[in-house]
Amino acid sequence: MDFSVLYIGSGQATWNGAVPLAKSGAKVAVIEESQYGGVCSNKGCNAKIILDKPLVLIDQIKALQGRGLDGVPKVNWEDLMAHKHELIVPQDQHGKDRLDNVGITTINGHAEFVDAHTVKVGEKTYTADKIVIATGMRPHRLTIPGAENFADSTDFLSLPHMPEHVTILGGGFVAIEFATIAAAVGAKVDVITRGNRILKQFPAEYVAKVQEDLKRAGVRFIPDMNIARAEKNADGSLTLFGPKEFQLSTDYVLDATGRVPNHDQLNLEAVGVEATNRGIVVNDNLQTNVPNIYASGDAIDKTIAKLTPTAAFESRYLAAKFMGTNDGPIVYPAISEIVFTSPRIAQVGVSLDEAKSKPEQYEVVEASYDGDWYRQIKNEQGAQLALIFDKTSQKLVGAAEMAMDAEETINTIVPYVQMGLTKEQLNDFVYVFPSIAYTLQRRLPLV
Ligand SMILES: Cc1cc2nc3c(=O)[nH]c(=O)nc-3n(C[C@H](O)[C@H](O)[C@H](O)COP(=O)(O)OP(=O)(O)OC[C@H]3O[C@@H](n4cnc5c(N)ncnc54)[C@H](O)[C@@H]3O)c2cc1C
Ligand SMILES: NC(=O)c1ccc[n+]([C@@H]2O[C@H](COP(=O)([O-])OP(=O)(O)OC[C@H]3O[C@@H](n4cnc5c(N)ncnc54)[C@H](O)[C@@H]3O)[C@@H](O)[C@H]2O)c1
To answer: Which Cys-Cys disulphide bridges does the record give (predicted)?
Structure first.
């Protein structure tokens, strides 16, 4: 065999494990058809947060007008985009260097299976003892007439000029995060959704508050609407048509209707690897029905969130398995997630909606930060925290926060939930003062 382990795809689901695996002496190869480092580094999380951060800063400056700050800076989208390019363009090379530097063979091109131990890239074939499918997902594209004129998340993240009127189809992460960005830059924004609830995985009451804030920022929500077709007008604008005479003209349409796995382009039929339209089917060892073929990251059909940290966790798990240091099934820790709205909503463990629907099982301790002097340094209003305890064990099993710095609070709480700390144990930490963590501790129920 040419290699001990061959990864298809070079994203988080690959390199987090492939690098230590190669360092341990294994002969490793990575095939990548696009940019090294995958979606997160090149056209996802990183680019998004570079565009978001300055806009959040402006929100914070706005909140402090007349409280020591005078004047609000304007966004220069073109400069911001140039700043984004400067940071993101080198990521591809960094991603390749990271692999080359530890002796991993990097192969450029589109991989397809020939048999269970052989993959081809163009005319060349490569063999390996084990193969990891880490091919991620791509944007789902609507197939209605005129949809070829719509943009996707990758296009938006390189948008040279912000259009006057942006229309977004979908109500998930990408739709709402990008609506937040476009509105903050001054575009008129419409969000059109099939149903009437956005950000379904986050607490309904927090989402409703964020939605109200977005409406105040000028975002219009059009629920229960299935767009049937689109037409391009002579001036380059687009008109969307729905049922019952619905018609909307706009400068730009972002198709944010989800993501689809890339396994349909791997010739899986040649090896008989089982897959669904949600991803590759694996057992609790991340092994497919073909014993020497594994899957990792967004490529997997899984119920846990398809995120960078979960892809990285799976990659490290597989590396430990291949190195022989972990023979057991994958045991996921408490999963945390965040939507980068302004304010953010972040959560970990048992969700607030679930906890509230099961009062016999969970105790929900809710706290507001209004009146907290530290939070009011930034004149932050309406921030809220919910802690979820298991009634029997008194252990903390989940938390959610809606606040400017929600990621900091939830990251502080992640180990508490993971370690199953009780109310009593939560008081046993001494934090830096003043800080977000200290502020959080003052909201914990004292025993
Ligand atoms: C706009 C956007 C924003 C996001 N923001 C966040 C965020 O803030 N936080 C967060 O945790 N997650 C975020 N995500 C999700 C995160 O990017 C993914 O969960 C993560 O990238 C998954 O990593 P992966 O390695 O499984 O897949 P990917 O990063 O998709 O990598 C798969 C790689 O495989 C390659 N590939 C596919 N098929 C083949 C083939 N046949 N041959 C060779 N190569 C192939 C692809 O080119 C790609 O580089 C965001 C996603 C998007 C789109
Ligand atoms: N902050 C973050 O961590 C972050 C940010 C962006 C993306 N992501 C990840 O990327 C992935 C994709 O995010 P996303 O926003 O593209 O997907 P999503 O699944 O979150 O949202 C898709 C939206 O499109 C709607 N939709 C689906 N099909 C439709 C159709 N035919 N017509 C109209 N609407 C339709 C859905 O109802 C939903 O509102 C997620 O798995 C998420 O985990 C994470």
So the answer is: 40-45
> Encoding tokens for residue 37?
């480092």
Q: What is the mean pLDDT of residues 264-288?
A: 97
Complex ipTM: 0.98
Residues with CB under 6 Å of ligand 1 are: 8-14, 31-34, 38-40, 44-45, 48, 110-111, 134-137, 153, 174, 262, 265-266, 297-299, 306-309, 311
Q: 444: pLDDT confidence band, cut at 50, 70 and 90? A: confident
256 alpha carbon to ligand 2 midpoint, in Å?
6
Same domain, 133 and 43: yes
The radius of gyration of the chain from alpha carbons, rounded to an integer in Å, stands at 24
d(CA 249, CA 429): 56
Q: What is the DSSP letter of 104?
A: P
Kindly state the tokens that stand for 198: 């956005």
Judgement on whether residues 48 and 62 belong to the same structural domain of the protein: yes
pLDDT digits (tens, 9 = 90+) for 222-253: 999 999 999 999 999 999 999 989 999 999 99
Measured at the CA of 206, the angle between CA 139 and CA 404, to 5 degrees, comes to 85
- Please indicate, yes or no, whether residues 24 and 77 belong to a single structural domain of this protein: yes
Do the domain assignments include residue 335? no
Beta strand spans in 304-351 (E)? 336-339, 344-349
